[in-house]
Amino acid sequence: MTLHIQSHFAFTLTEPGSALLQFEVAAMPDQTVITSAAQITQTDQFTRVPAQDGIGERIWIGAAGRIEVQYEAQISTPRRAPALYDLGEAALHQLPGEAVPYLLDSRYCRADEFQSLAASEFTGTSGGARIAAIRDWIAEHFEYVPGASDATTDAAQSFIKRQGICRDYAHVLVTLARASSIPARYVACYAPGVTPQDFHAVAQVFLTNAEETGGDWHLVDATGMADLANAAIIGVGRDAADVSFLTTFAPMEFHYSKVDAALKP
């Protein structure tokens, strides 16, 4: 089966300015971009740059007026995720350099505020078992409510309200993982199974394998909606601010976004 993706969004820059886009699936060892085509309204300036951690690309555009973006792709994701309970926790001094920044607080994920809660609520667990416990706790205590949050909502606010969308679920999981001294980063992706279909957000945590001879990043979805084996990663970051599909640096009016991600023969 192949993941077929279609996404379309539109916005207007009400005065000349720049926008940073990130909506294309990244080429990675565990996902192959079979076909990919993007169309963007003609702009005054267009530049591709590497995205966070070299995963995927961002596109700088300079323009004024209405911008339409259309993207279609076919993706193969031969990803086999081990059971979280089989994964261990790396000693902090043995973490690779790339993982260390994902222990630290970020704009939407201030983990230092949650260290006491993580220690008391998830006592007796570590590594993958701790992450599974966090995921299950969020699933039990949170309600998926579109419109319950906005672009300014951080993990602490989501924790208090106990409502939100995938962005908020991912922020809370990332925050509680970091509060447990487990590196965690925010992931933007396309994924089958998500209802309603949209750009989806999950977490990725750094854990050791069963033999503890190394470590790797593993996807976790606190909403429980995504088919993670067939999810296609767009990019990663400390939180949503690092990997938004649209960031503008001028006054902007957003019109709509439409996403469809489905498995087909």
Description:
The chain is an alpha+beta fold and 265 residues long. It is built from four helices and twelve strands, in the order ββββααβαβαββββββ. Strands 1, 2, 3, 4, 11 and 12 form a six-stranded antiparallel β-sheet that branches. A four-stranded antiparallel β-sheet has the order 9-8-7-10, covered by helices on one side. β5, α3 and β6 form a beta-alpha-beta unit. The protein is globular. The termini are close together. The mean pLDDT is 95.
Overall helicity? 10-25%
- Termini separation: 5 Å
What is the average of the pLDDT values?
Answer: 95
Contiguous uncertain segments of 5+ residues:
none
Continuous helix count: 4
What is the number of E strands?
12
SSE class: alpha+beta
What's the shape? globular
The biggest beta sheet reads: 6 strands, antiparallel
Note the run of SSEs as H and E.
EEEEHHEHEHEEEEEE
Task: Output the radius of gyration.
Answer: 18 Å
User: How much of the sequence is in beta strands?
Assistant: 35-45%
Task: Reconstruct the topology from this structure.
Blueprint: E1 2-21, E2 32-40, E3 45-50, E4 57-76, H1 115-121, H2 127-141, E5 143-144, H3 155-161, E6 163-164, H4 166-179, E7 184-190, E8 200-208, E9 215-220, E10 232-237, E11 246-248, E12 252-264
Parallel strand pairs: 5-6
Antiparallel strand pairs: 1-4, 1-11, 1-12, 2-4, 3-4, 7-8, 7-10, 8-9
Helix pairs in contact: 1-4, 2-4, 3-4
Give a brief description.
By secondary structure, this protein is of the alpha+beta class. Helix content is 16%, strand content 39%.
